[in-house]
Amino acid sequence: MAEIITMPRLSDTMEEGTVVKWHKNVGDKIAEGDILAEIETDKAIQEFESEFDGVLLYQGVAEGVSTNVDEILAIIGNEGEDISGLIGGGAKATTEVKEEKSTPSETKTEEAKPASEIPANVEVITMPRLSDTMEEGTVVVWHKNVGDQVAEGDILAEIETDKAVQEFESEFDGVLLYQGAKVNEPAPVDTVLAIIGEAGTDVSAIVANGGKVAVSVASTEVVDDEKPVVVQLDVNNKVEETSSDRIFVSPLAKTIAKDKGIDLAEVKGSGDNGRIVKKDIENYQPSAQPKAEAKSESVKPAQTFVSGEDKVIPNSQMRKVIAKRLAESKFTAPHYYLNVELDMDNAIEARKQLNSVPDTKISFNDMVVKACAMALRKHPAVNSTWTDAEIIQHGDINIGVAVAVEDGLLVPVVKNTDQKSFAQISAEVKDYAGRARDRKLKADEMDKSTFSVSNLGMFGIESFTSIINQPNSCILSVGAIIQKPVVKDGQIVVGNTMKLSLACDHRTVDGATGAQFLQTLRMYIENPVTMLV
């Protein structure tokens, strides 16, 4: 079956690409790893290699011509395969023209055909937006393969968002006709994830048009009795002179080699002119023969240093989104910080009494979360969000509790926190934290926060500052409880203290407002009985 190759997004800001040079012409045989073309992005000219074996059946872009990302770049398939349905009927191969006769030729213009409809028995499923910040998703595992029977409610796949891995179930009955996303390869939201329908239904035209209805445009063709003459593109480009010690390697193979710590000089390439391609790296076996040691009788090194190897870790979807959102918050919201140190003696005693109740286990973090919720009710300006047009003071108090996970940070949200008891908050936070570490949180359990709490006290951190979790206006950083000398009633005694740091967005929360909030928060935490009244 023919494979459609679209203009790739070779940089994060790329919107269109220009084919500088085709390395393969229509009719050429292609192997996986062969360079198809050189593509100019908004940042550089990059070689683009094929991921498929076959014959180049179609070039969608001529040399020197630009096209948008995700438009058809090429089609690879079996020799002689009919691809007219894949190119929409209106496109023309860039390497074929019909020779005009010296005598006048007759032309005819086809009228534009109406859009072909997606069959009634076919359902196109797109990559869902499983969180409010999700821009692309990654299929971790497919639970159904092409050809499998699917019933409504069956799990189709597990999808990794920027926050969690979630099971995605089918809303339709039928047969899985097409998988639009490969395992472990990100796919943008709203692109085709799967197609379900009756067995044997041809969905190639739907796939070619990205799940949308196909539209045939008006076309003008030359009517001639003569057969078309194939005219090859002019590829009389100068070849750069290179030194004999240059290593020819595809960009993908180079990246994989770097990840695996493979020395390209030791790899034998199987591509054109000895070029190293992806499969050469994957099949590479290091030589058992040790490298020859340099000999020098006159100079001996005084000390031998063993250098460590760099470890390249690809950015996960979660890490990408964390980086993007925190950078946006830090450089758009004018942060300022307020710091206080609390006397925790009463809180320690109150916690002991609360935990004396059977089946009760309240943490200091639970007490802080409850205190924040009650303080927010008294200071609604802190429970707010900035927009360019207005400031929104939220009616609900929903506190996000930062949870460290293996690949970053998740912030599950305790909804209506001010209306819940210590025990309810404790149970909810424990449940969220456990499922967060297993990446099993649902999207609605991580949205609509109005204030956030980050606690590193369990790691012995005395004080720190956090970046505001947009669209919140503030985030509270909680340090460890420390025993140290303090002054009480004019005497130096051993006391228990805890430091808090409040990061505020100055667009919504003025300094005095933040300070008043911290005063109220101090009152609640230092005197927990006030939260029970």
UniProtKB/TrEMBL annotation:
Start and end residues of each stretch annotated as Disordered: 89-117
Pfam families linked: 2-oxoacid_dh (PF00198), Biotin_lipoyl (PF00364), E3_binding (PF02817)
Biased composition (Basic and acidic residues): 95-114
UniProtKB keywords: Acyltransferase, Lipoyl, Pyruvate, Transferase
GO CC annotation: pyruvate dehydrogenase complex
Keyword DNA damage: no
Molecular-function annotations in GO: acyltransferase activity
Cofactor dependency: (R)-lipoate
Known EC number: 2.3.1.-
Domain Peripheral subunit-binding (PSBD): 248-285
This protein's record includes keyword Hydrolase: no
Domain Lipoyl-binding: 2-77, 122-197
Family: Belongs to the 2-oxoacid dehydrogenase family.
Protein known as: Dihydrolipoamide acetyltransferase component of pyruvate dehydrogenase complex
Species this protein is from: Empedobacter tilapiae
High-level lineage: Bacteria, Pseudomonadati, Bacteroidota, Flavobacteriia, Flavobacteriales
